[in-house]
Automatic annotation (TrEMBL):
Alphabetically ordered keywords of this record: Allosteric enzyme, ATP-binding, Cytoplasm, Glycolysis, Kinase, Magnesium, Metal-binding, Nucleotide-binding, Transferase
Similarity-based family: Belongs to the phosphofructokinase type A (PFKA) family. ATP-dependent PFK group I subfamily. Prokaryotic clade 'B1' sub-subfamily.
Taxonomic lineage of the native organism: Bacteria, Bacillati, Bacillota, Clostridia, Lachnospirales
Descriptive protein name: ATP-dependent 6-phosphofructokinase
Taxonomy, superkingdom: Bacteria
Binding site for substrate: T125, I126, D127, R162, M169, G170, R171, E223, R244, H250, M251, Q252, R253
Gene name in the database record: pfkA
Active site (record annotation): D127 (proton acceptor)
Subcellular location: Cytoplasm
Extent of the signal sequence: none
Amino acid sequence: IKTIGVLTSGGDAPGMNAAIRAVVRQAISKGKKVKGIKRGYAGLLDEEIVDLEAKHVSDIIQRGGTMLLTARCPEFKEPEVQQQAAEICRKHGIDGMVIIGGDGSFRGAQKLAAQGINTIGIPGTIDLDIACTDYTIGFDTAVNTAMQAIDKIRDTSTSHERCSIIEVMGRSAGYIALWCGLANGAERILLPEKYNYDEQKIVNSIIENRKRGKKHYIIINAEGIGHSTSLARRIEAATGMEARATILGHMQRGGSPTCKDRVYASTMGAYAVDILCEGKSKRIVSYRDGKFCDDDVDEALAMTKDISDYQYSIAKNLSI
Ligand code: F6P
């Protein structure tokens, strides 16, 4: 490997900059050249390629977002487009690529590898929905951001004796919702993975809680369930308790990364360069069972992971 390309793709996540910085500096320390590709796969096709030196990644470790910008690129599914992308890499002397993103980005890495470019994926998404890894870049910052926002909503919810339904991101996964539910001591957590709840039971529990003198009722609703505003309306009508819905939205994706996100993203960035230099390709860097490791992309994409039944069940007990 002589020249390593790096790109970020899909939704941005806090800590991506720390990973980019680590890729650039680990590669330089091993005598490699680095090229940054702007705007993900779309930018690769447009040849938005810049040389990256150590100084170009200074003062970014603490910043949210991605200095390389990001985009989604649906046309990358086409075989001719994948071939064209590999030719562009060769034209620019890029023989190894580090791709930071989610499942969709890894499918791109898989295709690029099939076209002869060595690729390594790094999991970057606030959703934590990548099966091969217990950690994804941005999740820790996102849950801390959401937790702080929910604490604030709780203050006003208590003062007004309201029910607050707070919708958090996560696409079709409920990890952010489960973590916030536990961290914020929510009365209810609605997860797409456990979508069997009975609305009448929620209504009964709100009425019961009010009788026992509880001043608020916090429901954390995952984006994968959605419809928070209509749920608030139905709850208010059925219980007589005022209800408000708040959709936290994209604020969960921004902000300065936490220490954990900076350290893990830095480690994964350097690790990706190390295994590229060892001659590995078509791998995803993972963190599993307390260790950094790497998996074949096909195998990683075929893996599944569950959300913790135990944590979901104790959340109910802890919020009585
Ligand atoms: O994957 C990250 C994520 O923030 C999801 O939680 C959410 O469903 C989606 O991206 C939102 O995408 P967009 O930024 O395109 O609205």
